[in-house]
Automatic annotation (TrEMBL):
Gene Ontology CC, one term: cytosol
Source species of the chain: Ciceribacter naphthalenivorans
Record-linked InterPro entries: ALAD (IPR001731), ALAD_AS (IPR030656), Aldolase_TIM (IPR013785)
Name of the molecule in the record: Delta-aminolevulinic acid dehydratase
Family: Belongs to the ALAD family.
Gene3D superfamilies: Aldolase class I
Pathway noted in the entry: Porphyrin-containing compound metabolism; protoporphyrin-IX biosynthesis; coproporphyrinogen-III from 5-aminolevulinate: step 1/4
The encoding gene: hemB
The reaction(s) this protein catalyses: 2 5-aminolevulinate = porphobilinogen + 2 H2O + H(+)
Record flagged with keyword Lyase: yes
Subunit structure: Homooctamer.
Pfam families: ALAD
GO MF, one example: zinc ion binding
Length: 338
């Protein structure tokens, strides 16, 4: 009498996980996570000039845009319901120097972008980075003195830059430089300047990763970078250190936390959400984007499904949102689904 069915029931004690997966309607009913347009932050690249949109070879489908074009793109993003943009400038080479002094120009490229978008599209959030790398002649995120990226002098400069960015209309300052003490210093600087409502999204755990390659092409820092960023970014081997670093950002007043890169660091996203309960964001960085695009272009992977699956996995890992170069594609896809 012992047929195969009884054998399995004996083994599982009559529990069968597949019952809940048996039909489309059961699967929809049991769904734990869903990606929506409200989860998206769109990083964009800005160039000087007018009426130019130029492709970035290592990031197929992603362009650099002049401010006027960025305003149009911001309108399109807002119409699709994307909550916020993150802006990154590709600064003219002749304006880059050892200390990244151009970041202290009130009317520099990143601040001109913020002001123009805020004026034309007031209902989209603007998140700006205060790291020095787009402004330095050596591509580092801080001030280089001899062989050292000096911490405190860099913090002093990025606080002043953060205030200028807030003056220009930035809603959230997102420092990606990993200097010690920067979150507390920026908070004090913003508050002293009357910017109490400007938030801070800490790049709480930024790893010394290979996945930033295409971004460095996008803002022309790749060829400039001397050495590596290991004295300030976190070693990919270290999860506990990442949590300690994030804890300091929380104590110093971060409003939200970010993990960067994204997919290889989902464990960090989860641990951070569990540990602090603050909103957690992941940055699906340029190399992650390029991998999917390259495999899809070769017909090795279904690019659309990979985009949707990777973004959904961030939600499952506890993220409240994702910075992704796919933002417009996903938003359009979700709008079509209704
Ligand atoms: C540096 C910065 C990086 C990125 C954004 N700002 C990393 C780097 O160049 O070291 C990477 C973004 C991406 O790869 O998409 N402050």
């Amino acid at each position: 009498m012992q047929d195969k069915t009884h054998l399995v029931d004996d083994i599982t004690g009559h529990r069968r996980m597949r019952r809940n997966r048996k039909a489309d309607w059961t699967r929809r009913l049991m769904l734990e996570n869903r990606l929506t347009v409200d989860d998206l932050i769109w990083p964009i690249f800005i160039i000087p000039g007018e009426n130019i949109v130029e492709p970035i070879a290592a990031m197929p489908g992603v362009n650099r845009m002049t401010v006027d074009k960025a305003v149009e793109a911001a309108k399109e993003a807002a119409d699709l319901g994307i909550p916020a943009l993150a802006t990154f400038p590709n600064v003219e080479m002749n304006l880059r120097d050892e200390t990244g002094s151009q970041i202290l120009e009130a009317n520099n490229l990143i601040n001109r972008t913020t002001a123009a978008i805020k004026k034309a599209v007031p209902n989209i959030g603007i998140i700006t980075d205060v790291a020095l790398d787009p402004f330095t002649s050596h591509g580092h995120d801080g001030i280089l003195r001899g062989n050292e990226i000096v911490n405190d002098e860099t913090v002093d400069q990025i606080v002043r830059a953060a205030v200028l960015q807030a003056d220009a209309g930035s809603d959230i300052i997102a420092p990606s430089d990993m200097m010690d003490g920067r979150i507390g210093a920026i908070r004090r600087g913003l508050d002293a300047a009357g910017h109490q409502s400007v938030g801070i999204m800490a790049y709480a755990t930024k790893f010394a990763s290979c996945y930033y390659g295409p971004y460095r092409e996008a803002i022309s820092t790749g060829g400039l970078l001397k050495g590596d960023k290991k004295t300030y970014y976190i070693d990919p081997a270290n999860g506990t250190e990442a949590l300690r670093d994030a804890a300091l950002d929380v104590e110093e007043g971060a409003d939200t936390l970010m993990v960067k890169p994204g997919l290889p660091y989902l464990d960090i996203c989860w641990r951070m959400k569990e540990a602090f309960g603050l909103p957690v964001f992941a940055y699906q960085v340029s190399g992650e984007y390029a991998q999917i695009k390259a495999a899809a272009a070769n017909g090795w992977i279904d690019g659309e499904r990979a985009m949707l699956e990777t973004l959904l996995c961030f939600k499952r890992a506890g993220c409240d949102g994702i910075l992704t170069y796919f933002a417009m594609d996903v938003a359009k896809y979700l709008a079509k689904q209704g």
